[in-house]
Amino acid sequence: MKPDLHAEVNKNSAFLDRELSQLMFNRRVLAQAEDKSIPLLERLRYLCIASSNLDEFFEVRVASLLAAGSVDGSLSTHPALVATLSRISNECHALVAHQYEILNQEVLPQLAANGVHLVRHNERNEAQRAWVKEYFDTEVRPLLTPIGLDPAHPFPQVVNKSLNFIVSLSGKDAFGRGTAIAIVKAPRVLPRVIRLPDHLSKSGGVSFCLLSSIIHAHISDLFAGREVIAYSQFRVTRDSDLWVDEDEVKNLRQALKGELLGRQFGASVRLEVAKNCPPELSQFLLDQFGLHQSRLYAVNGPVNLVRLTEMMDHVGGPELRFPPFYPGSALKPGSPDIFAALRENDILLHHPYQSFQTVIDFIRSAAHDPDVVAIKQTIYRTGMNSDLMESLITAARQGKEVTVIVELKARFDEEANINWADKLEQAGAQVVYGVVGLKTHAKVALVIRREDKKLRFYAHLGTGNYHPTTTKFYTDFGLLTCHPGIAQEVNEVFIHLTSLTKPHRLTHLWLAPFALHNEIIKAIRNEARIARAGRPGRIIVKINALVDESVIRALYAASKDGVKIDLIVRGACTLKPGVPGLSENIKVRSIIGRFLEHSRIYYFRNDLAHDVVLASADWMSRNLFRRIEVAFPILDKGLKRRVLAEGLNPYLKDNTNAWELEPDGHYQRRKARGKQASFSAQQHLMDTLGIPHGHLGE
């Protein structure tokens, strides 16, 4: 039975509810955890991904809604917002219950049947209990600091998403006082999943227990002379958006460093407790954190499912995982150096099916090439360890002009980006932090090389981040080019971002917040004009989210004029497809598979000109108006065909990982029908672009 998500939403609205649409994405991720054709550890991973997604949803989206409603001190003056929060609460509670149902009834029992055991206290044999007792005494107890609450010991600060315990005690303490409540914080330095010695596991298997289970089993040992009446693990989720007044601060990096320290103690937005937590204890915690009962989640298992990913690092068994995948290379063995190759042809990269190493080699070659005089690059996410960033540091130390635009406010990557900014400046690079009030989300790099006494520009433009880990799991396109028009316009973008002057008129690149929105609307309207003239109008778009109402209205208008529109939207989509008189020519689908779909592709038929534009931007107001974004054309006809053949057409054929959006906001999984063969776009691309397993080195 479908969850009646949109029952309370105005039926006459032309738009779906954004928050519920975002939560429906989690429904599709959970469906992967239920899919019996997927290996068990990967199903567990999807459960963890869904849990992580929900954490961020509360930390950012719910937190922002609560903050917006409490500006005047009360939510009661915002009935529409109260209704939205109520719908969110209902759906989130249903999602969480479903998560733990899948975990407890399907994934964990089936893992146990395959020799992977998560052993609860009441399931441990005597030998296992003895080992756990010793582990608690030697590794855990010395690091615990129980806090008995009284006027001299107030409720402690609880870090965002940390594991804690609340304990109800009988009797009196050592000083004859009746302190009835104690709080125990789990040490953050200890692993949350502990592997038992192999000799304590069943033959050929591997066993784990959770730190929370170990503390539960021995929590009474912390309160000598007192009886533990009841206890529960708990976790509080807090507002994790950083905010600084960029118009007031003199040094954004220093201001954000201070804000990072406070992120762990933002406003509370959700409380999770164990299912058997007594009501009086959960109410005590709600009161402490200032939360309404609707934001309490009593869960049937560990309060942080994300931690279960730690099990995967200790389990072999290839049958429990996806088969290994090895990306292909965009350059053939024996190819000339990358700059010579680019002088011959543009290079289109499709990650993760083709290795990101080509981009790393591009920057590394530039760092060591004596003819390269300058390197410029934007950084949004790059992680703590990055060969690419090390190459930029090397280039700066060798005296090249290195300019790096580091986005310090890339959510949850702020600390890594601040650290890289420090290292780059110490090496002599020029580091700037984008434009006040706008996030620099564009993914561009530029290499300037002296050739034949002239400067030649080489550029990389991408739809995804310069991050060594995500490039292995996110689908993205990148273009390496020395096309004079495109590469020189990339340089104009860098001059604009560093000098803060108005950018020169760009003829190839669509730059937000100046032109991107207008160009998208213009391209949509052009297809509508073509359709009104009786010729085929066609739009295919692949993005992560579609919520900007002005773009949606333009798509509705084009649909009415007869333009055939296919939208491949991974996450939130507030457009209603297939509504007679509004959007009957629009279809929306979402692909959920082994890799996270992250490419942004805009295709407009344009009377057989076949305009193909790749971009860093989704069709959201924040991308179009509040970020620095770059969309770039694919000019080479062969590469255009590749984008269509790899980035769009397979996804329109997919009947394995595709979900189709219905007008009411629900999604239906598409399946092969009759004699139709099953087809997965991602598997097709792995088969055609990757290196077959067993062929490495051939």
Automatic annotation (TrEMBL):
Q: Which residues form the Polyphosphate kinase C-terminal domain?
A: 337-501, 509-682
- Going by the entry's taxonomy, the superkingdom of the source organism is recorded as Bacteria
Which positions fall inside the Polyphosphate kinase middle domain? 128-310
On modification after translation, the UniProt record reads: An intermediate of this reaction is the autophosphorylated ppk in which a phosphate is covalently linked to a histidine residue through a N-P bond.
Question: What reaction(s) does this enzyme catalyze?
Answer: [phosphate](n) + ATP = [phosphate](n+1) + ADP
Q: Which cofactor does it need?
A: Mg(2+)
What molecular function does GO assign, one term? polyphosphate kinase activity
**Listed Gene3D superfamilies:** Endonuclease Chain A, Polyphosphate kinase middle domain, Polyphosphate kinase N-terminal domain
Domain Polyphosphate kinase N-terminal: residue ranges: 15-119
What positions constitute the catalytic site? Answer: 441 (phosphohistidine intermediate)
Where is Mg(2+) annotated to bind?
A: 381, 411
Give its E.C. classification number. 2.7.4.1
Name the protein family: Belongs to the polyphosphate kinase 1 (PPK1) family.
Protein name as it appears in the record: Polyphosphate kinase
Please name the source species. Duganella aceris
Lineage of the organism: Bacteria, Pseudomonadati, Pseudomonadota, Betaproteobacteria, Burkholderiales
The coding gene here is: ppk1
